[in-house]
Amino acid sequence: MNSSSFSPWAPVAIRLIVGFGFMQHGFAKLGRGADSFAGILDALHVPFPLFMAWATIAVEILGGLCVLLGAFVALASVPMIVVLLVAIFTVHLPNGFSSIKLMAVDVAGAHFGQPGYECDLLYVAGIVALVLGGSGYASIDGWRRQRRVPVGVPS
Predict the structure, then answer these.
(1) In the structure, what pLDDT confidence band is assigned to residue 5 with cuts at 50, 70 and 90?
(2) Which residue of 77, 98, 99, 103 has the fewest C-beta atoms within 10 A of its own C-beta?
(3) Are 129 and 14 in contact (CB under 8 A)?
(4) What is the dihedral of CA 12, 15, 16, 21, to 10 degrees?
């Protein structure tokens, strides 16, 4: 058994973390209320903040679900990457690259500064890897691709 026999499973790990991560962010925004997130977007001077809040929540939850299932990943990737780029340029860029900024440690524990754009770029890289390399085994995209190939025709 060599590592290449497992290579079709490699995208599954990426799908799980990217899909779950996006959904978690969407559900967190939804849990606090779209109006609360719209207030943050308004403070950042994002146009149409309530509409953009709902659009972001929908992209995070539905896009995350698509990635998790490996369904329509190429289509879902576009709005997902747009959300990440907006986050980078409106929030994280001034904080630098690193997502972890240890400020101090005291009896209450570790205290961290504002995160940079590192994690956003990791999400972008994961999404791009899935688009370019495919969703791998146990994916709806893979199942759809197999159904299109006629029997007896090499793929």
Answers:
(1) confident
(2) 103
(3) yes
(4) 170
Identify the pLDDT of residue 150.
62
- The DSSP symbol for 104 reads E
List the chain domain ranges: 7-148
CA torsion angle for 112, 114, 116, 121 (degrees, to 10)?
90
Q: Which two tokens stand for residue 20?
A: 């779950």
Share in percent of the chain as helix, strand, coil (round to 5): 70, 5, 25
Rounded CA-CA distance 7/12 in Å is 10
Q: Please give the model's pTM, rounded to 2 decimal places.
A: 0.86
Checking if the pLDDT of 26 tops 90, the result is yes
pLDDT score, position 148? 74
Long-range Cβ contact pairs of 111-119 (< 8 A, separation 24 or more): 116/92, 117/87, 117/88, 117/92, 117/93
